[in-house]
Amino acid sequence: MSFISKLFRKAEPEEEPEAATAQPVKPDAGERADEPAQAAEEARDQAQEDEHGEQPGGAAPEAAPAPIEAEEGAWWEDSWPLAARDQRAAAEQNDTSEASAAPDEPAERQQPEDGIGPSALPVAQVEETGTRPLTASDVPALAPQRSLRGLAAAALRDVGRVRQINQDSVFALLTTVPRESGDISIGLFIVADGMGGHQGGEVASRMAISAVARHVLTELLIPALIDGSAEAIQPLIITAVQDANRAIWEHAQAIGSDMGTTCTVVLLLGRALYIGHVGDSRAYLATPAELKQITSDHSTVGRLIQLGQLDPAEVREHPLRSQLYRTIGQQREVLVDFTYQQLGDATHLLVCSDGLWGMIGDEAMLDVVQQHTWPQDACNELIARANLAGGEDNISAIVVSLPSSSQ
């Protein structure tokens, strides 16, 4: 049969060939009319088969091959050379063998369903990609417990319940400076209680804050950030307060005012305090056992206490409590007290004006700062208590919570 004839025969479904041993069926009368055409077609097919050779020994012809299904091959594949068809069959046989062998691979080479986790990285892949599963030693260790108290600060001021204007000014700055041996914490805290009436005390207290903060930041903090150098702390603090005194004095002389202010400056540097002080604002250190005053009042009653002529418990009720003999801005020159204090076991620093310490006692202030985690909450309660006690003066408070020495 020619190639063209086979093309047309594949387009039509072929009937199943009858068995070689089947008996011939006697045709009906209606089929006899087609016998000449069928005979002619059979003769033509027989002639084509004779061109390719007859079956030896007159054996019966083999059954016709089954039609090729669409998924197993296309009709044009019959025109391929036998060598090409044999090569394709061998490739298909290899693919089938590999697919059947896949489930027998070791368990560690099989990927998990989600593709995540150590099992997703077999040993061979780890070597190729340079990754490996995490182990217990790779997990960072957690801190055994949270810090119960950290370094934080808050500042607050209030006009009180008697005065019409607030002549107090406060300043609080807390930062960290990088050093080769380890970062160091720096804090600058200032309370200034002005005096001199409207446009007098409030101006003086703001000028004191501005002059002191500018000097300390310019001469200490900025050089520390640039090259790590700074001048000695004691002369720096004293000069800062004296510069503020000179600026206020010159301004008061220019406008004919007797303005003045107190000024208490606390510089926190690591685990130490450097304090410059003029007037009767105070700095305290709170320990688990007590609230310790670390400045001296430049007032009449303060001097009487130093001479042993007055008990400190009587200060709040003494009629000369507010009479000061040393302030900022009322003399051309001023003597500045300087104190160096290690933190030790202190838990808090409190800097305040006499509007606070004159209204509530040391035990009450200690209780407030120790019962609050956040300094802002402590400031709020301290001022509220001072107002409940009368609020006779402007009230200012700076509270700094100090980390323990082990932190």
Descriptive report:
- By secondary structure, the protein is α+β, with helices and mostly antiparallel strands.
- The chain is 34% helix and 17% strand.
- The protein has ten helices and eleven strands.
- The chain has helices at 3-11, 35-52, 82-101, 123-129, 201-226, 233-255, 300-306, 354-357, 362-371, 375-388; strands at 152-158, 168-177, 184-195, 260-261, 263-269, 272-278, 282-286, 291-293, 337-342, 348-352, 395-401.
- Strands 2, 3, 4, 5, 6 and 9 form a six-stranded antiparallel β-sheet that branches.
- A hairpin with a 2-residue loop joins strand 5 (263-269) and strand 6 (272-278).
- Helix 5 (201-226) runs antiparallel to helix 6 and helix 9 (362-371) runs antiparallel to helix 10 (375-388).
- The chain starts with a helix and ends in a 6-residue tail after the last strand.
